[in-house]
Structures are given as C-alpha cells and as structure tokens.
Amino acid sequence: MRSLPRLRWAALALLVTGCALAARESTPVASPGRTSRAIAEARGDVRVSPDGKRTAVRYAGWTTRDFGAFRSYAYDDVRPEPPVQKAVMPMGVVGDPKKGRALFLDRQKGPCSGCHLVPGDDVWPAGSVGPDLSTLADRTLPDAYLYQQLWDPRVTFPVTVMPPWGAQGVFTPEEIVHLVAYLQTLHGPPPPEKDADRNPFTRRKPTGFGDNLDPTNNPAVVRAEEAQALWSARGPKGKACADCHAGLPQTAMRGVATRYPRVVAEYGRVMSLEDFLSVHAAATTGRALPSESAANLDVTLLVKMASNGLPVAVDTTSPAARAAIERGRASFYRRVGERNHACADCHTPDHGANKFLGGRFLGDVTGGLTRHSPTWRTSQNDVWDMRKRMQWCMTPLGANMLAADAVEYAELELYLTTFDVGKPINAPGIRH
Amino acid sequence: MAGAMTRRSALGTFGAVGAALATGTLSIGTPARAQAQGQSQALGLQESVQDGLKRVFGGRPMKDGAALIKLDIPPIAENGAVVPVSVEVNAPMTPASHVKSIWIVADKNRIPIIAKATLTPEAGQAFVGANVRLGETTDVRAIVEQSDGTLLTAKREVKVTVGGCGG
Amino acid sequence: MSDIGKIRIRVPSNVKAGDVVRVRCLVIHPMEIVQRDAQGKIIDRNYNYITRVTATYLGKPVVAFDLTQSVSENPAFSFALKATAPGPVKVTFVDTHGGKYEATADIAFA
Fold first, then answer.
1. Domain spans, chain A
2. A57-66, A302-311, B6-15, B57-66: which has the minimum mean pLDDT?
3. By 3-state DSSP, what share of chain A in percent is helix, strand and coil, each rounded to 5?
4. Phi/psi of residue A301, nearest 5 degrees
5. So what CATH class is A97-183?
6. CB distance from A15 to chain C under 8 Å?
7. For chains A and C, what is the number of CB pairs under 8 angstroms?
8. What is the mean predicted confidence (pLDDT) over A68-87?
9. Does A379 contact chain C (CB < 8 Å)?
10. Which residues, 6 or more positions from A32, have their beta carbon under 8 angstroms from its beta carbon?
11. Residue B64: which domain range?
12. pLDDT tens digits, one per residue of B19-52
C-alpha cells in the first residue's frame, strides 16, 4: 500500500478538489489516473505480457479474461453502446435442433435458460426474467425473425434487456442457426409440470439464512467481535483509532455510518466507509487499511454495526451530493460489457427485480440494498462489501472491473444508498 | 461484549482457543484402508452411497421413519456450501429406550455419510442440527438408530441451485 | 490474528427445571475440502477439518458429533438437553491438525 507524504497527499487532494470546483455539475471528480488504495487483486489491473497477451489481475478464482474490448463503468470510457445490427441468416447451414438445445443450456454462453424457460427435466434452474419459450414455435415466427432476435434483438425491441448475442460475438452465425432450429421445435402443449420448482414462475422463493445478528449463525458477527481489539491497537505512528474516537467503536462511532457514502471535502470525492478508512487510517495511525483487505473490512464492520438500528441518512441535498447521485444513477442505467447490460436490467421492478435469473432471485434496488453491507456470503465463506459485489458483477457481464475504491463505484453506491434512506442499518447481513 | 454489538441478550460466554495437541497424520480415507483398519463405521470415506450404507449398516433392515422423523432441510439450497439440516425424532429419550445415533447422508456427495450424532438420554429430545455441504441436487437421508438396534430412515430431496449468468 | 477455533454458544434464558432446551453453537474453522488436481486425482494430504464435537452438561456427555469434510466451513451445530439444574454446557471441537477448541455457556434458571 502506497502512502504519500502528507504534504503531497494534501496537494493532490487540492488538485482534485480544484478540478471538481471547475466543473462540478458535469465532470467526474476523480481523475482517471488516480492511484487506487486497494489490495493488488482489487485494483482492476490488466497485465500485458511481452507477447501482447492481456491478463486481468483479480481475486483468486475469478476469471482473468480481459474484457477491454467492451465498454466499462469508467467515466473516461466514452465508447458508445455497440451499434444496433441488422443480420441476415446465412445460407447453406442446416439447423440442428439437438445442437441448438445444447447451446441454449450451455453455461459458457448464456445460458439462454438463465432468462427463458424451456421444457425438459434437465432444465434446472431456468429463469423468469424473459418470457417462457416452451411453446414459442406455435407462434410460427419466421426463421429470419428469430435469427435477427438472437443476433441483435434491439432491431425489433429497441429497449430490450436481452443482449445482442450475435453482434457481440458470443454466438457464431452457425450457432444461431442451430438455436433457431431448436426454438422452432418448441410446440405446445408443453409436458405437464411434475415439479413446481422447475418452473421459475411457480418456484418457491429463497428463504435466506436466518438471523444475521446471531453469532451462532453469522460468522461475520464473530469476525467483527474478534476485531474489536483493532480499535485500540496502536498503529505505526503510535496512535490508535480510540485515541481520537474514545471508547469502544459501538459508542464512539454510533451514527457515523448513517451518513456514508458521502462527499469528503478533504479528498474531493464521494467515499464509502471503506474508501475513507483506506486513507484516514494511514494518515492518522499509520496503519494501512487498503480497500478489500481483511483489516479494512473488519474496521468497516465495526463502524457500520455501531449504527445498527439507526436510519440511513446520507446527504441527498447539497449540490455536490446531488451531482454525484446523478452520476451514480447514470452508471446504474449505463449499458456495459459483452452482454450490454445495465444494473437496472436486473435490479429494477420494470425488468428483472423479483424474478429468477437462473436460480438467483434478483434484488430490487428500490427496496434498498446497502444497509446490510458488508455482508457474509455463505457461498464465499467471506465478508463482501458493496464494491466487491459490484466488481463481481463485472465478470458475468463481460466488462473489466474497476478498482474497488474507484469513484465510479462510490457514486454508484451513493445512488443505491438513496433507496435505503430512512431505513435502519442492519449489518452484517448473511446471504448466498 | 457480545450483547453490546448484537441484540441478542441470552448469549453464552465464549471460550478461548485451546492448546494444540500433537499433530496427527491423517490422509484421505478410502474404503480399502478403512477395511484394513477394521473401521467399518469409519467416516469421511469417498464412496458411493450404496457402498457406504452397506459398509456402515451391513444390510440391516431400515424401517420407514417418515411418521416419526422430522427432517428439516430447505427444498432448494441457494448454494451447496451451507445447507442447514436438522433432524427431530418423535421417540422417547429414557435410559431404557432412546435414540442412540442419527446419521446424516447425502446420496450424491462424494463423501455421502456426512455426519453421525451420538445421543444420551440426557439430551431429553432426539434433536440435532448441522450445516452441511452438498455437491449437487441430491436426496438427503436421516438414519436413526434406537437403543434396541432398530433403524429408521426418512429422506427429502434438496435441489441445489445456481445462478443464471455466471453465479 | 486467525479466528480459527473461536466459538459462540447460544442457550435460552428463561429456563425452568425439567425444560428440554435447544443449544446452538458455531465454530470458526476452514473445514478444508478434498482437492483434486487438473487430472481429477485426489490430492492426498492432511486436510484440516473438525472430526469430533462433544457437548457435556454438568460434566456429563449429552451429544457428540463425528464429522467429515461434507460439513460446512464455520459449521454451526444444534442439539437438545434436559435442563435439570443450573450449570455449564461445554462444547469441545477437535480437528485433524491436533487443534482442540472449547467453550462454555451457562444454563441459568429463571
């Protein structure tokens, strides 16, 4: 973790603030080249080897594929959405429905079943974000129409959330011919449903993982309890958090988390608790708390939990906050990646929210999705904050993730938090 | 300390980490090794569920325990890493007649015999729970052994779900 | 500082003599799973996982669990006990690396 001498950091902050003052309403606050204070695997770096091969540096087990060819969330990525493409079905390819069905279910591609139900006991778990295709062939749509739909559905439906699979190169023209052949076999009536859970329109909703504040249920609570000693532990400068913030974190920090993320004037940008700790801890105690480090998450947990039960109260009225929220909202609706998806495609009631994407029940942003963060993830056996969740989303969408502490994510997080305003903080959560 | 951070007030005290004992050298259990060591009841072996049941129970008859055994497990598990299971048996727990053992089994797991609970009458009720790992959609069985040697079994299917777009 | 071996126990508060109460405990532990190499062959090494949980009440055994790698990381366990007198419930966890972790909670009568 890099730590700039105090004077240089102050100068940098002034420079950044200066940029903000100059064009507050329309220009991003952070300069694109700003140094990240995240751990190595959370910086969004892409390494280029001598032979030109590009490999992304990400968390262990995450794909290392470079999605640089596709639009990202970076404010300086001014590439437009991929242009809408008309397509003509290739001649001389005989569609094979069996191949088409295998492609439909292929998890390396869509899978198409992630959004669309089709018949078959082996179809598990299909999603309900898109229409049920089980009897699509009854509509006797021309092959060419279906081909265009799979190549780029925006030709027919300009505001669809369905990706332009062919235009983006996820499927080859030949593969799409096979898919069309398969779809044209789906005549009704569909076989009787033996299992109500197979069908995402009748499937039981997930019931969650129980009491998030019970330490015999949520390991994150144990982790936070065990981390309390960090509060009074002396850092390299001989100071502890408790020296300025006297007492235990649950009293010293009570109410603080309700105001985050917020515009921090000293650093000239929106910051979450995690972002602020990554600069504040080093500046005061000398202890490095790089973004996405275990220690940063531990202290974030302590500070967030100190506001449990208190209503979220982020600033939504000052000019700087309003401008940041607007940029965050724009990010939320921005189409990115190979899939050309926006957060809104999955997480608003008009589109995917409260429906199944494969087996995942999609969250609704309007209900507020940040007050339980950082959250214990049972599938990861680890604590995830909002940024890691945003970064993770980038890999299925096929867009390079940004640094965990990127201002783009911070402003997006602030936008998301506006939906939690007035609701009680309840962290850490426990989720899949 | 716990009560201040959480709303639970009836928490017990928590213990300290004990001193480590001499390190053993255990390697992956195979049925052959278990056989050689005379451990027909050994746990942790990678085997088919049929082999495992045969090895542990030796073909003893198992009665249908559906009426007496409450096997509580989510019908759809959001992931296979943490699946809460509990087993409650409607049977006495007296010194003369009690539930002696409860096994939790997942047919499709590589290690299908997941855990064995051994109870005493002091338990007062034949109830145990644990968080288990499931490799894939599978039947999960509870096998109950009573003090007179009677075996009862009940099972439920658990579907393990996955995401639709990479997760 | 690793949290491995940290334990939490929950016991109910308004207990009367003769009540059958449920106890729940959680231990922080990796419960390492079997790994396979690129060819699918099991990597044979000493995986660190809890093999045995024992619970006593007033010094007498109540329940014991024999575990395998099919049990979750940071596992939680529940069991019942018949509350006859106020006193300690002790849970002990033993893992394959020789770790032994213990914790106690008190059953208090209302």
1. 1-66+207-432, 97-183
2. B6-15
3. 35, 10, 55
4. -60, -50
5. mainly alpha
6. no
7. 30
8. 97
9. no
10. A74, A75, A76
11. 60-160
12. 333 333 334 566 666 655 555 677 888 899 999 9
All residues of chain A having their beta carbon less than 8 Å from the beta carbon of residue B7 are 213, 308
| Homologous superfamily of domain range C7-32+46-107 | Immunoglobulins (2.60.40.10)
B to C CB pairs, distance under 8 Å: 185
Mode of pairing for the β-strands spanning A429-431 and A375-377: parallel
CATH number of A1-66+207-432: 1.10.760.10
- Going residue by residue through chain C (110 aa), what tens digit of pLDDT does each one get? 589 999 999 999 989 999 999 999 999 999 999 999 999 899 999 999 999 999 999 999 999 999 999 999 999 999 999 999 999 999 999 999 999 999 999 999 98
CATH of the domain at B71: 2.60.40.2470
B149 is a domain residue: yes
With CB atoms and an 8 Å threshold, state whether B123 touches C71. Answer: no
Note whether residue B84 is domain-resident. yes
Token readout for A416 is 């998301």
Q: Which of A345, A301, A425, A396 is nearest to A160 (CA)?
A: A345
In a domain, B27, yes or no: no
| A388-408 residue pLDDT tens | 999 999 888 999 999 999 999
Closest Cα partner for A132 from A194, A171, A189? A189
Under an 8 A CB cutoff, do C81 and B131 touch?
no
**Entry pTM:** 0.89
Q: How many domains does chain B have?
A: 1
Q: What is this model's ipTM?
A: 0.96
- Cβ of A219 within 8 Å of Cβ of C24? The answer is no
Fold agreement (A1-66+207-432, A97-183): yes
- CA C75 to chain B, closest CA, distance in angstroms equals 6
The token duo for A388 is 């890691």
Taking the CA atoms of residue B82, residue B88, residue B89 and residue B93 in that order, the dihedral angle to the nearest 10 degrees is: 120
